[in-house]
Amino acid sequence: MAQDSRYIGPRLRRMRRDLGLTQANMAADLDISPSYVALLERNQRPLTADLLIRLAQTYDLDIARLAGDGGAEQQSRLSAVLKDPIFADIDLPAMEAADVAANYPGFAEALLRLHTAWREEQLALADRSVEREGPTGGEPPDPVAESRRFLAARRNCFPALDDAAERLAATIAQADGLQGYLRARHGLRVRRLPADVMMGAIRRLNHHGREVQLDDQMDSASQNFQLALQLAYLELRSDIEAQLQGGQFETDNGRRLTHRALASYAAAAIQMPYTAFARAADSRHYDVEALGRQFGASFEQAAHRLTTLQKPGHERVPFFFLRVDQAGNVSKRLDGAGFPFARHGGGCPLWTVHQVFRTPRQIVTQWIELPDGQRFFSVARTVTQGIGGFGTPRAERAIALVCAEEHADRLIYTRAANAPGPAMATPIGISCRLCHRADCTSRAAPPIGRDVLPDDYRRTSAPFGFSDG
Question: In degrees rounded to 5, what are phi and psi of residue 178?
């Protein structure tokens, strides 16, 4: 019954309540009895084609939207959530998830929201346990950590934003691109100006002059992204605000940073629409440079977009994304691959993301193995932050895309004839304090829980020697 699209009782009930109607009101409008409406809403009677048409005509509804998909999208989301290890000891057949999604959509949505809030709070608790250690007894809230927790709890995937951006991208394509759409829809022209005129801005919306101003030293990928970002602020603001509603923010700055992150997400989704980009990722075997060229995006923009392809029912390879500078400072971190990156302290120097500064703009691949035996495949490369022109400020950073071993064969980087296999994985740790590899010559600190041996009579090749106990 749950799979028969004629039985849409929960959706009918929700629609009636959204319209502010009682069962008696709806019965009078449709010329049926209130008891029949009650039977329909309890899925004890199917909705006939004739009644479906009457509903659509009476309340000016889209028949396809009313008939729906039997909760397929919500079923996919629910199934994904139920794979969480916290539910591992509960027998949850797929058919039961389908029944809940189809017949009890409100309950399913409540469970999804609760799970998202739980994940976010778990991440917050992990941060607080470290931040609040020490003699000071506490540290002020970290807005960057707040924003990262918000994104991590949702795996940096926002299907509603993807859908809204994809619809907007289709309209933009019909208007001959971003500039044509801005002119036709908002009466805004695009004007490129020298840096001294822009006075430190790379994009500025001039309401009085009816123009979007861009720094003329930006490359084409950056210009396209900034135009898409301006459109996101103009047309998708309510969609972005809707995503923020479920967040838990202790600071205004945390909320603002998250709003900016979601706006950038929407801009990337306009520039690289989900369906087309996911299809291209498959056909090009996740070749980041080729994807960037196809969609007019930079290497970093394309790599970042790959981390968002986890829309329920349309998932692609899950990736972990990291951006660091030469001092090891992390300026962006997005986890969709379950990679246990150190949330505090330095990373492992044996990971090539910290070494690619020696070979600027060259892709460096690496198999890595964690102490627990998990293997991952890493793709790293440097990127330049800043605008063009001699003497202008720039920052060189490294980014890495990482996926689990079971997905690596889908990447073009593992298909070369001379590509090393997982057996050649480099042993790395999450951080020195959490890594118990005793013979690591790159170690910067002893691991928690190990006693350091004195070196009165013997000095090991590794920085520290440890007792066996």
Answer: -60, -45
